From TrEMBL:
Residue span(s) of domain Histidine kinase: 245-462
Biased composition (Basic and acidic residues): 483-493
Compartment(s) of residence: Membrane
Stated name of the protein: histidine kinase
Region (Disordered): 471-493
Reactions catalysed: ATP + protein L-histidine = ADP + protein N-phospho-L-histidine
Signal peptide, first to last residue: none
Domain HAMP: 184-237
Source species, domain of life: Bacteria
Length: 493
């Protein structure tokens, strides 16, 4: 699997392209060398035969047929290894002189050249060899064949061809190996950047891309990305400081305003004034709930290692939360189903976990119509403890599922319902502290409404106490005690 992914990398494909260009260049070079070498030797052989033919023609013109026969016999006698091939015959192929007995079989070119095999078919007594000859007709109806043994030349050509094939094979193998090694080195560095980037995108903003100190292209890219991350974290911290300070500064006057409105509500006798004062108190409560949620999320994101981590029975905690919300579900005539596996233990902060569980159950009830179904599940999955809430409500579009954990973000269909868009941000912060992962899926995929299933996967307690950490950027905790223990105060709208 890793090899296939390696072959799909752009660096390997670039190395493969380079290999093709390099191999083509080597092939053209070797082909040129072969053409010049083999072509030169073939041309030299043809020139030797042409020279012998010219000499024999000169002898024929000066001494006639008998002189030609004498010259051929002398040359055959001087060449015991039979490197030169001669055959003079009559018009009906009767041998007059030469070192082969009969006319060879082979395809004759228009210029009179023929390639054939020296064997028994031409009366050759030695080992089988290859030959090349020139044929022409002598005046008086005679036929003359003059050639050369080219077996050594053919063997040399085969050696050169074998060397070229091996050279091309070795070149391709080395180029492929080099491309793979180069791609592997490049891919490793890119994978380090990708892995770190994915962890940063998952919220680990304190991480930075490692460098080798070589100041090469990858180090420069990593340095630029790290500086960009530093700037982003700095800006995010500034925004959080501003929003948290505003929430903290406004909470106190809002609390006084709310108390004054409540006193007014108790003192007025006019029904209309009492109704208006009641609405004002409710609006003030909503604003205070929003500020409390902001401050609580800020405190969760900046608390780092929490001192309240204890072994918690997740099924018992969820049972307590369900008892709190069953009545609310009954008021909407909803079916409230529970499947709680016993003995599911995790290490965490019970108050924070209860807040997370309560927010998710409250959201499910809020966004599920009357006579709908709410499902609450606690189970083990491998080494994880899973808390799951499903509903038959309006659901969340796929393109918005990655955004609903942002502060104040609300799905378009739910904007008409009460809420402040902070409940799921708090759920995400609590999950992050407990090293959890949140998964959103449709309860009924393809149906309308699809509903929503929220699954929180957290490490199950295995009997070994672990120090749970977060990697959120550290911010100073807001002053004052703004926490409220009622689970519905920070539920998402």
């Amino acid at each position: 699997m890793k090899l296939l992914s390696q072959l799909r990398t752009s660096s390997f494909q670039l190395a493969l392209l380079y290999m093709v260009v390099f191999a083509t260049s080597v092939f053209l070079l070797l082909a040129f060398i072969y053409w010049r070498t083999a072509g030169f030797m073939t041309a030299q052989t043809d020139e030797t035969i042409e020279a012998e033919v010219a000499g024999l023609a000169e002898q024929y013109r000066g001494r006639g047929v008998n002189g030609l026969i004498t010259i051929i016999r002398e040359r055959v006698a001087r060449d015991p290894n039979a490197k030169s091939i001669y055959l003079l015959t009559t018009d009906d192929f009767l041998k007059l002189a030469g070192n082969i007995e009969s006319w060879p079989q082979g395809t004759r070119s228009e210029s009179g050249w023929i390639n054939f095999t020296l064997d028994e078919s031409v009366g050759w007594s030695g080992p089988q060899r290859l030959a090349r000859a020139r044929i022409f007709e002598v005046q008086g109806g005679l036929r003359l064949l003059v050639g050369r043994d080219v077996d050594d030349l053919t063997s040399l050509k085969r050696v050169i061809e074998t060397a070229i094939n091996w050279g091309m094979g070795i070149t391709l193998a080395l180029a492929l190996l080099g491309g793979f090694l180069m791609s592997r080195s490049t891919t490793r560095r890119i994978e380090v950047i990708n892995n770190t980037s994915r962890r940063i995108m998952n919220g680990h903003l304190s991480l930075r891309i490692p460098t080798r100190g070589t100041d090469d292209d990858f180090d420069q890219l990593a340095d630029n990305l790290n500086r960009m991350l530093d700037r982003i974290v700095y800006l995010m911290e500034g925004i959080r400081h501003v929003s948290d300070n505003i929430a903290h500064d406004l909470r106190t006057p809002l609390t006084r305003l709310r108390n004054q409105l409540e006193n007014t509500l108790l003192s007025v006798d006019n029904d209309e004034a009492r109704e208006q004062a009641g609405r004002a108190v409710a609006e003030a409560d909503q604003l205070l709930s929003t500020f409390n949620a902001l401050l609580r999320i800020a405190r969760l994101e900046t608390r780092g290692n929490t001192a309240d981590m204890k072994v918690v029975s997740l099924d018992e905690l969820v049972t307590d939360a369900c008892e709190l919300y069953e009545a609310l579900a009954e008021d909407k005539d909803q079916v409230f189903e529970q499947q709680l596996e016993k003995g599911v233990m995790i290490e965490g902060d019970r108050d924070l976990l209860f807040q997370m569980v309560s927010n998710l159950i409250d959201n499910a009830i809020k966004y599920t119509p009357e006579k709908g179904t709410i499902g609450v599940v606690v189970r083990k999955s491998g080494g994880d403890a899973v808390f799951e809430v499903s509903d038959t409500g309006i659901g969340v579009p796929d393109e918005e599922k990655d955004q609903i954990f942002q502060r104040f973000y609300r799905v378009g269909k739910s904007r008409s319902l009460p809420g402040n868009g902070l409940g799921l941000s708090l759920v995400s912060a609590v999950s992050e502290i407990h090293q959890g992962q949140i998964v959103l899926t449709d309860t009924y995929p393809g149906k309308n409404p699809p509903g929503l299933t929220v699954s929180v996967h957290m490490p199950a307690f295995t009997g070994v106490r672990k120090r749970i950490k977060t990697t959120s950027a550290e911010l100073p905790a807001p002053a004052g005690n703004s926490e409220t223990r009622h689970p519905a105060e920070t539920s998402d709208g």
